Amino acid sequence: MKVVSIVGARPQFIKATPVSKVLAKIGIEETLVNTGQHYDDNMSDLFFRELGLREPDHNLGVGSGLHGQMTGRMLEKIERVLIDACPDCVLVYGDTNSTLAGALAAAKLKLPVAHVEAGLRSFRPTMPEEINRRLTDHVSSILLCPTATAIENLKKENVASTEIRTDCIDIDDVKYLTSLQGPLVANVGDVMADILYRERDRPPKSALIKNLDAGSYALVTIHRAESTDDLDVLHCIVNALISLSQKMPILFPIHPRTAAVFENTGLNKRLEKATAISRVPPLGYNDFLMAQSKARIIITDSGGVQKEACIIGVPCLTLRDETEWVETVDSGWNRLLGSRAENLSEAAQTAQPPKSKLSNPFGDGHAAERIAAILKAFNFESLK
């Protein structure tokens, strides 16, 4: 069996790592394609080296640009790879432009699409990620959901016809799956939980992270277009961070997109005056995981960071009006603060862990094995 896997951004490198290793273990031939959506070393090559994700078979080098420009370039280049590879299935991850381009290229070539992280919804139709994930789900044959909520979202949209009972999935015995017809949907758990459980006890490499005073600082990540492209919103966030820095130190790994906006708008000068805000380049996976574990509070607009905070057990404030990861809010570990960071300083100082700790909603760390078992057993001929 042959699978082409499409990745392109930092979160996808993390998600693909455990899946790629299990695919190789059970004898599925994988062609790994990196679109190059994230091309900075700290956002790309570092993750391949650190997590042990093998070198991609194809690096398309698309880089950044407008959404249509990026997606169009990816479509053209991915299509050529798929024609040459003739896979049984195309595996895509998450909700980036790389995800949508991979899914569309496969669908137009009448190749089955398997979508990891299917079913997520923010219910904000103008959000680029929401557009990508909805369109990808609706052209997918196998919808691999991370949570029960994602399953329910797909049922409401009548996307899939058959739900796989994941309690019947055993990577060494997949007879149950061979007779099923697609489109299929399954709650396999979250692959980011797989790698977090595997990596969480490894020591950080950076001396900065090793020497952090646990429980004393706020960890901040800002990268979404809604945060960085609207200067009014970005000014509100920066003002809130400067105010908070007078109450506690802030560690702020800067995403390349955010760094460019800070430079072009003069916000760098304002941040330089806030000496309690430590701006650093993007961190490697283990360093960032330890930075999260040691933080007093995590402040982010990232979906992945919301999940990791919940699993690790550190209170999180999300600078958005909605989240696709509703389980983080329901569990009490995450609070939606709004895109303009209203009352950030007060919220960060008073945030506490929930009184009753609910069970982790993101799975047991074996999502990659379930995904591989489904791909191995599914009768792709039934889709032709």
If you had to describe this structure to a student in words, what would you say it looks like?
The chain is of the alpha/beta class and 384 residues long. It has two domains: 2-190 and 364-383, 3-Layer(aba) Sandwich (Rossmann fold); 207-350, Glycogen Phosphorylase B (Rossmann fold). It is built from 17 helices and 14 strands. The chain has helices spanning 10-25, 45-51, 67-85, 97-108, 128-138, 148-156, 191-199, 207-210, 225-228, 231-245, 256-265, 267-273, 285-294, 303-312, 326-330, 344-350, 367-377, and strands at residues 2-7, 29-34, 58-59, 89-93, 113-116, 142-145, 162-163, 184-187, 218-221, 250-253, 277-280, 297-300, 316-318, 334-336. α5 (128-138) links the parallel β5 (113-116) and β6. α1 (10-25) packs across α7 (191-199), α3 (67-85) crosses α4 (97-108) and α10 (231-245) crosses α16 (344-350). The longest helix has 19 residues, at 67-85. The two termini are 16 Å apart.
Helical content, roughly?
Answer: 40-55%
* CATH class division of the largest domain: Alpha Beta
Question: Which value, in Å, is the CA radius of gyration?
Answer: 20 Å
- Fill in the CATH topology of the largest domain: Rossmann fold
Beta percentage is 5-15%
- The average pLDDT score comes to 90
CATH homologous group name of the largest domain = Glycogen Phosphorylase B
Largest sheet: 8 strands, parallel
Overall 3D form: globular
Widest sheet: strand order? 3-2-1-4-5-6-8-7
User: Can you tell me the CATH architecture of the largest domain?
Assistant: 3-Layer(aba) Sandwich
Number of strands: 14
Poorly predicted tracts of residues: none
Q: Classify the secondary structure makeup into a structural class.
A: alpha/beta
Gap between N and C termini: 16 Å
Number of domains: 2
